[in-house]
Design a protein that fits this description.
The complex is a heterodimer of chains A (about 120) and B (about 120). Chain A is an all-beta fold and about 120 residues long. Chain A is about 0% helix and about 50% strand. Chain B is an all-beta fold and about 120 residues long. The chains are: A mainly beta (about 120), B mainly beta (about 120).
Chain lengths: ~120, ~120
Amino acid sequence: KAGVTQTPRYLIKTRGQQVTLSCSPISGHRSVSWYQQTPGQGLQFLFEYFSETQRNKGNFPGRFSGRQFSNSRSEMNVSTLELGDSALYLCASGTGLAGGPNEQFFGPGTRLTVL
Amino acid sequence: AQTVTQSQPEMSVQEAETVTLSCTYDTSESDYYLFWYKQPPSRQMILVIRQEAYKQQNATENRFSVNFQKAAKSFSLKISDSQLGDAAMYFCAYRSARNNAGNMLTFGGGTRLMVKP
Protein backbone atom coordinates (compact mmCIF):
# COMPACT_ATOMS: atom_id res chain seq x y z
CA LYS A 1 0.00 0.00 0.00
CA ALA A 2 1.21 3.47 -0.77
CA GLY A 3 1.80 5.69 2.24
CA VAL A 4 0.40 9.09 3.05
CA THR A 5 1.48 11.70 0.56
CA GLN A 6 1.62 15.44 1.08
CA THR A 7 2.15 18.10 -1.53
CA PRO A 8 4.01 20.29 -1.88
CA ARG A 9 6.91 19.28 0.36
CA TYR A 10 8.28 22.80 0.63
CA LEU A 11 6.61 26.14 0.20
CA ILE A 12 7.72 29.74 0.57
CA LYS A 13 5.11 32.48 0.80
CA THR A 14 5.02 36.09 1.90
CA ARG A 15 2.89 37.65 4.60
CA GLY A 16 -0.69 38.28 3.59
CA GLN A 17 -0.78 35.56 0.95
CA GLN A 18 -2.82 32.41 1.21
CA VAL A 19 -1.71 28.81 0.83
CA THR A 20 -3.31 25.43 0.17
CA LEU A 21 -1.71 22.17 1.27
CA SER A 22 -2.82 18.75 0.12
CA CYS A 23 -2.86 15.34 1.75
CA SER A 24 -3.70 12.00 0.16
CA PRO A 25 -4.39 9.32 2.78
CA ILE A 26 -3.69 5.62 2.56
CA SER A 27 -6.20 3.85 0.36
CA GLY A 28 -9.27 2.89 2.37
CA HIS A 29 -8.63 5.39 5.15
CA ARG A 30 -11.45 7.84 5.72
CA SER A 31 -9.93 9.99 8.45
CA VAL A 32 -7.42 12.73 7.82
CA SER A 33 -5.98 14.84 10.63
CA TRP A 34 -3.76 17.89 10.35
CA TYR A 35 -1.09 19.02 12.80
CA GLN A 36 1.15 22.05 12.99
CA GLN A 37 4.67 21.54 14.30
CA THR A 38 6.81 24.47 15.43
CA PRO A 39 9.87 24.65 17.68
CA GLY A 40 8.03 26.89 20.14
CA GLN A 41 4.59 25.29 20.34
CA GLY A 42 5.44 21.70 19.44
CA LEU A 43 2.83 19.53 17.76
CA GLN A 44 -0.65 21.00 17.79
CA PHE A 45 -3.83 19.51 16.41
CA LEU A 46 -5.53 21.60 13.74
CA PHE A 47 -8.55 19.56 12.66
CA GLU A 48 -9.75 16.14 11.61
CA TYR A 49 -11.96 15.21 8.70
CA PHE A 50 -13.88 11.97 8.45
CA SER A 51 -16.07 11.10 5.49
CA GLU A 52 -15.99 14.71 4.23
CA THR A 53 -17.11 16.16 7.59
CA GLN A 54 -15.00 18.01 10.09
CA ARG A 55 -15.10 15.86 13.20
CA ASN A 56 -12.83 17.81 15.53
CA LYS A 57 -11.14 21.16 15.53
CA GLY A 58 -8.17 22.48 17.49
CA ASN A 59 -7.67 25.93 18.90
CA PHE A 60 -6.59 27.82 15.78
CA PRO A 61 -7.97 31.03 14.27
CA GLY A 62 -10.48 30.95 11.45
CA ARG A 63 -7.70 31.67 8.95
CA PHE A 64 -7.01 27.96 9.10
CA SER A 65 -9.58 25.88 7.29
CA GLY A 66 -9.81 22.54 5.61
CA ARG A 67 -11.96 20.23 3.61
CA GLN A 68 -12.12 16.63 2.53
CA PHE A 69 -13.20 15.26 -0.79
CA SER A 70 -15.19 12.15 -1.59
CA ASN A 71 -11.97 10.23 -2.33
CA SER A 72 -10.78 11.12 1.21
CA ARG A 73 -8.07 13.47 -0.03
CA SER A 74 -7.89 16.54 2.16
CA GLU A 75 -6.73 20.09 1.76
CA MET A 76 -5.98 22.70 4.33
CA ASN A 77 -5.94 26.39 3.59
CA VAL A 78 -4.33 29.22 5.48
CA SER A 79 -5.40 32.72 4.50
CA THR A 80 -3.66 36.00 5.26
CA LEU A 81 -0.41 34.32 6.20
CA GLU A 82 1.55 35.56 9.20
CA LEU A 83 5.20 35.00 10.04
CA GLY A 84 4.11 32.75 12.92
CA ASP A 85 2.47 30.34 10.46
CA SER A 86 5.91 29.13 9.41
CA ALA A 87 5.88 25.50 10.44
CA LEU A 88 5.93 21.89 9.40
CA TYR A 89 2.38 20.81 8.61
CA LEU A 90 1.79 17.12 9.12
CA CYS A 91 -1.12 15.08 7.89
CA ALA A 92 -2.15 11.78 9.46
CA SER A 93 -4.37 9.13 7.94
CA GLY A 94 -6.40 6.50 9.73
CA THR A 95 -9.50 4.35 9.44
CA GLY A 96 -11.26 6.68 11.85
CA LEU A 97 -13.57 3.92 13.06
CA ALA A 98 -14.89 4.10 16.61
CA GLY A 99 -13.28 1.76 19.09
CA GLY A 100 -9.76 0.40 19.05
CA PRO A 101 -6.47 2.28 19.03
CA ASN A 102 -6.86 3.16 15.34
CA GLU A 103 -3.26 3.60 14.38
CA GLN A 104 -2.59 6.74 12.40
CA PHE A 105 0.03 6.99 9.69
CA PHE A 106 1.78 10.28 9.12
CA GLY A 107 2.88 11.85 5.88
CA PRO A 108 6.31 13.44 5.36
CA GLY A 109 4.95 16.92 5.99
CA THR A 110 4.91 20.23 4.17
CA ARG A 111 7.47 22.77 5.31
CA LEU A 112 5.89 26.24 5.01
CA THR A 113 8.08 29.31 5.31
CA VAL A 114 6.43 32.72 5.51
CA LEU A 115 8.65 35.70 4.71
CA ALA B 1 -8.59 19.02 28.40
CA GLN B 2 -5.83 16.49 28.45
CA THR B 3 -2.17 17.42 28.74
CA VAL B 4 0.95 15.38 28.09
CA THR B 5 4.30 16.24 29.62
CA GLN B 6 7.75 14.99 28.71
CA SER B 7 10.15 16.31 31.30
CA GLN B 8 13.37 15.33 29.53
CA PRO B 9 14.10 17.61 26.54
CA GLU B 10 17.25 15.59 25.73
CA MET B 11 18.61 12.19 26.61
CA SER B 12 21.79 10.44 25.66
CA VAL B 13 22.59 6.73 25.62
CA GLN B 14 25.56 4.61 24.66
CA GLU B 15 25.04 2.20 21.81
CA ALA B 16 23.83 -1.21 23.07
CA GLU B 17 22.74 0.27 26.40
CA THR B 18 19.22 0.79 27.73
CA VAL B 19 17.46 4.13 28.07
CA THR B 20 14.08 5.14 29.51
CA LEU B 21 12.11 8.15 28.31
CA SER B 22 9.50 9.60 30.67
CA CYS B 23 5.98 10.76 29.96
CA THR B 24 3.19 11.84 32.27
CA TYR B 25 -0.31 12.88 31.33
CA ASP B 26 -3.31 14.43 32.91
CA THR B 27 -6.85 13.29 32.17
CA SER B 28 -10.15 12.73 33.91
CA GLU B 29 -11.07 9.94 31.51
CA SER B 30 -10.76 6.27 32.34
CA ASP B 31 -10.52 4.92 28.81
CA TYR B 32 -7.91 6.17 26.39
CA TYR B 33 -4.91 5.20 24.30
CA LEU B 34 -1.29 6.16 24.68
CA PHE B 35 1.35 6.17 21.98
CA TRP B 36 5.03 6.73 21.48
CA TYR B 37 6.03 8.18 18.13
CA LYS B 38 9.52 8.54 16.73
CA GLN B 39 10.48 11.43 14.46
CA PRO B 40 13.92 10.99 12.85
CA PRO B 41 15.69 13.86 11.04
CA SER B 42 13.64 13.04 7.94
CA ARG B 43 10.63 14.35 9.93
CA GLN B 44 8.48 11.30 9.12
CA MET B 45 6.55 10.38 12.26
CA ILE B 46 6.61 6.66 12.95
CA LEU B 47 4.53 4.82 15.53
CA VAL B 48 6.79 2.96 17.94
CA ILE B 49 4.36 1.43 20.39
CA ARG B 50 0.83 1.86 21.73
CA GLN B 51 -1.01 1.02 24.93
CA GLU B 52 -4.70 0.71 25.64
CA ALA B 53 -5.55 2.08 29.08
CA TYR B 54 -7.87 -0.80 29.94
CA LYS B 55 -5.04 -3.29 29.48
CA GLN B 56 -2.89 -3.79 32.54
CA GLN B 57 -0.18 -5.61 30.64
CA ASN B 58 2.59 -3.37 29.38
CA ALA B 59 3.00 -3.29 25.62
CA THR B 60 6.19 -4.59 24.02
CA GLU B 61 7.50 -4.31 20.47
CA ASN B 62 10.88 -5.98 20.01
CA ARG B 63 13.45 -3.72 21.76
CA PHE B 64 10.78 -1.22 22.81
CA SER B 65 8.61 -1.63 25.89
CA VAL B 66 6.53 0.62 28.07
CA ASN B 67 5.92 0.95 31.77
CA PHE B 68 2.29 2.02 32.04
CA GLN B 69 1.22 3.15 35.50
CA LYS B 70 -2.43 4.19 35.18
CA ALA B 71 -2.90 5.43 38.72
CA ALA B 72 0.21 7.56 38.49
CA LYS B 73 -0.67 8.64 34.92
CA SER B 74 2.78 7.69 33.79
CA PHE B 75 3.80 6.09 30.48
CA SER B 76 7.54 5.63 30.05
CA LEU B 77 9.32 4.10 27.06
CA LYS B 78 12.26 1.77 27.51
CA ILE B 79 14.60 1.16 24.59
CA SER B 80 16.88 -1.84 25.06
CA ASP B 81 20.09 -2.52 23.12
CA SER B 82 20.06 1.02 21.69
CA GLN B 83 21.12 1.37 18.09
CA LEU B 84 22.41 4.36 16.15
CA GLY B 85 19.18 4.35 14.17
CA ASP B 86 17.21 5.01 17.35
CA ALA B 87 18.52 8.58 17.43
CA ALA B 88 15.46 10.79 16.92
CA MET B 89 12.84 12.92 18.62
CA TYR B 90 10.39 10.83 20.59
CA PHE B 91 6.87 12.04 21.27
CA CYS B 92 4.39 10.69 23.75
CA ALA B 93 0.76 11.10 22.67
CA TYR B 94 -2.70 10.64 24.15
CA ARG B 95 -5.96 9.87 22.43
CA SER B 96 -9.34 9.72 24.10
CA ALA B 97 -11.47 6.63 23.59
CA ARG B 98 -14.70 8.65 23.57
CA ASN B 99 -16.65 8.05 20.37
CA ASN B 100 -16.77 11.74 19.52
CA ALA B 101 -13.05 12.27 20.12
CA GLY B 102 -12.14 10.91 16.72
CA ASN B 103 -8.45 10.54 16.02
CA MET B 104 -7.24 13.68 17.75
CA LEU B 105 -3.84 13.19 19.36
CA THR B 106 -2.45 15.35 22.15
CA PHE B 107 1.34 15.33 22.05
CA GLY B 108 4.01 15.97 24.64
CA GLY B 109 6.85 18.36 23.93
CA GLY B 110 9.21 15.61 22.83
CA THR B 111 12.52 14.16 23.96
CA ARG B 112 15.56 14.26 21.71
CA LEU B 113 17.46 10.99 22.01
CA MET B 114 21.13 10.89 21.05
CA VAL B 115 22.91 7.56 20.66
CA LYS B 116 26.67 7.54 21.12
CA PRO B 117 28.74 4.95 19.24
